[in-house]
Amino acid sequence: MSSWLKYIEHIQPVKSGYFKAGDSLFYNGIDSRMITPEILRLINEKASIFHKKIKIFNEESVDDFVGYLTGCELCTTDWDVSGYFDSYNNTIAYTEQYCTASKQFLETLCHEMSHSFQINIGIDILDKTLLNRFKSEQQCDTMAYYLMKAINPTLTNYTFDGSYFDKSALNWLADYYVGTPVKNDVF
Ligand SMILES: [Zn+2]
Fold first, then answer.
1. Three-class SS string for the chain?
2. Tell me, which fold does domain 35-176 have in CATH?
3. What's the gap in Å between 140 CA and the centre of ligand 1?
4. Could you report the per-residue pLDDT of 83-96, keeping only the tens digit for each?
């Protein structure tokens, strides 16, 4: 096993089922088939940085955590979302009211940071169709799950409460993009 798997070699592949939306099939849970070796390698690099520079995730280290792993600045937002990644301004934002529980806060950050990792490996996160955006969100939740495991290998039976694994999430995303250039190719 190659050395870049140092932090994630213990992670078992996860497989879930599917649901249909438009002409596409989507995963209904975290699924390792959304993760390529390139993505795993990148997640492992980020985990190495975490283990070297950050070590423990807490209130004091949260700005460094986001800064060292993504180069983004961390800020808060009043928008009605748990968080977002802004690729133009290189910021990651979170909503304080949704992030009082540290597990949820860490998951939100890992999800938003994964959007910046997607850009690192050339994935178009600003795709103009709803189905592709939704695919990208599912991949992001899955990347966040693997990142969570890699930065904390002691987590056992860890469940990531991903938000993008059923049709209601697709409806939510469709509403979210109303009035934007993202084309609704589902409904
Ligand atoms: Zn997202």
1. CCHHHCCCCCCCCCCCCEEEECCEEEECCCCHHHCCHHHHHHHHHHHHHHHHHHCCCCCCCHHHHHHHHHCCEEEECCCCCCEEEECCCCEEEECHHHCCCHHHHHHHHHHHHHHHHHHHCCCCCCCCEHHHHHHHHHHHHHHHHHHHHHHCCCCCCCCCCCCCCCHHHHHHHHHHCCCCCCECCCC
2. Arc Repressor Mutant, subunit A (1.10.10)
3. 6
4. 899 999 999 999 88
